[in-house]
Amino acid sequence: MTDTAALIAQMAQRARRAAVQLAAMPAPAKAAALRAAAAAIRADTQAIQAANAEDMAAAEANGLSGALLDRLKLDAGRIEAMAGGVEAVAALADPVGDAIDRVERPNGLVLTRVRVPIGVIGIIYESRPNVTADAGALCAMAGNAAILRGGSEAIRSNRAIHAALARGLAAGGMPEDAVQLVPVTDRAAVGAMLVADGAIDMIVPRGGKSLVARVQAEARVPVLAHLDGLNHTYIDGAADPAMARDLARNAKMRRTGICGATETLLIDRAFADPKPVLAALADAGCELRGDAEIRTIEPRAVAANAEDWDTEYLDSILSVKLVDGVDSAMAHIAAHGSHHTDAIVTADQAIAERFLAQVDSAIVMWNASTQFADGGEFGLGAEIGISTGRLHARGPVALEGLTTYKWVVRGTGQARP
Question: N or C, which end of the chain is more exposed by having fewer CB within 10 Å?
Fold first, then answer.
């Protein structure tokens, strides 16, 4: 056993012991510990900012993209939002112990499905140091112990946030090992987590395509997958022009580096006037990529290639295409989307309902910006990620998605004949 494998095994053993204690903690006690953690994060704002400044300087020197730098950056406002997110999780209803359903069999047996924690959850993530607080808080509130492995580009920030979080949770009465941070940046630590079947109960990857691909290829532990945000906004022929312009600009340009950003804009050829939509995007600094038809409408656009329709830019770049109605739009989404978030802008309810029913994505939207693809905006508090799979949990995953269930059977002496 290598030193890294031994390290992960030891962390998992401590996490398992902590998970047993967490599973038995009442909701008010967990909430109080999270509020203490939020207070500790606020108290350490200067230390977190100082650590983040070192990470930012190193990242800029290493040539990280603007989108990744935006994900990495922590200012006082983002740290306050992080603390507020932990408090929001504390205010959520605890799903542990909830009865999903109950039935009484003809023989008198009473069967109940009850929500229980998953156990030990490993989170592997890149760039975003706020995940340290979000994931730790969500796992703990759902009664799970967490093992966090952040990216090397955010190691100083992650350590500072984790130190505050762990101090607050312990002061609030949670076990010391409720939320652990892998102390090394060695990529072998990721490999050790992925094969820790029986020690870690679920892995959640949050990062780029290469990270998720590696996790899915190597994991011997169940994975809650978060794939690319290859999101589409479709402007239907019946769309309100002003709404279409404003939503397209917001969906792409509000924050280009988040997974809810639109990466491809589809416009119905029957739409009244696409020029103001494209001009608003170009005026906002967005590079538009399209075919000759698009470049005729907006001369600032550049030629698209085949790869553009399958690219998550996470930058001020947008692929644009004219399509022949909603069926053509849905066919394009089916061929190129990642089942994350797709939106339609239209005043025609019948067309909107077809789109919502037939597009096979974790989140589908009508007359709303794809930037709302976020657990906080869904009222879930912080999120562990947005699952694009079809099993266990789908869409923004928060407390409920971090639980499983068990069957509780109550009898009065029944023996099976």
Answer: C
Residue 348 contacts residue 236 (beta carbons within 8 Å): yes
The answer to whether 162 and 123 have CB atoms below 8 angstroms apart is: no
- Residue 2's pLDDT band (cuts 50, 70, 90): low
Whole-number Å distance between alpha carbons of 232 and 23: 40
Question: Which domains, ranges and CATH numbers included, belong to the chain?
Answer: 3-224+384-410 (3.40.605.10), 231-372 (3.40.309.10)
Q: Hey, what are 258's tokens?
A: 């988040």
CA dist 65 and 289 (Å) reads 19
8 A C-beta contact, residue 304 and residue 291: yes
Sheet holding 145-149, edge to edge: 179-181, 145-149, 120-125, 202-206
Q: How far is 188 from 177, CA to CA, in rounded Å?
A: 22
- Beta strand 179-181 with 287-290 is unpaired
Place of tokens 């691909």: 213
Q: What token pair was written down for 408?
A: 């509780």
What pTM, to 2 d.p., does this model score? 0.84
Residue 169 and residue 219: Cα distance in Å, rounded?
Answer: 30
Lowest mean pLDDT among 2-6, 142-146, 179-183: 2-6
Our measurement of the distance from residue 398's CA atom to the centroid of its chain's CA atoms, rounded to an integer in Å, reads 9
What is the Cα–Cα distance from 108 to 414, expressed in whole angstroms?
Answer: 8
* Strand blocks (E) in 236-311: 262-268, 287-290, 302-303
Q: Rounded to 5 degrees, what are φ and ψ at 192?
A: -65, -40
Long-range contacts of 293-296 (CB under 8 A, 24+ apart): 293/322, 294/320, 294/321, 294/322
Distance from C-alpha of 389 to C-alpha of 227, rounded to nearest angstrom:
8
DSSP characters over 8-41? HHHHHHHHHHHHHHHHHS-HHHHHHHHHHHHHHH
Reply yes or no on whether the pLDDT at 391 is more than 80.
no
pLDDT number for residue 101: 96
Write down the pLDDT at residue 385: 79
**Is the four-CA dihedral 6, 10, 16, 19 of positive or negative sign?**
negative
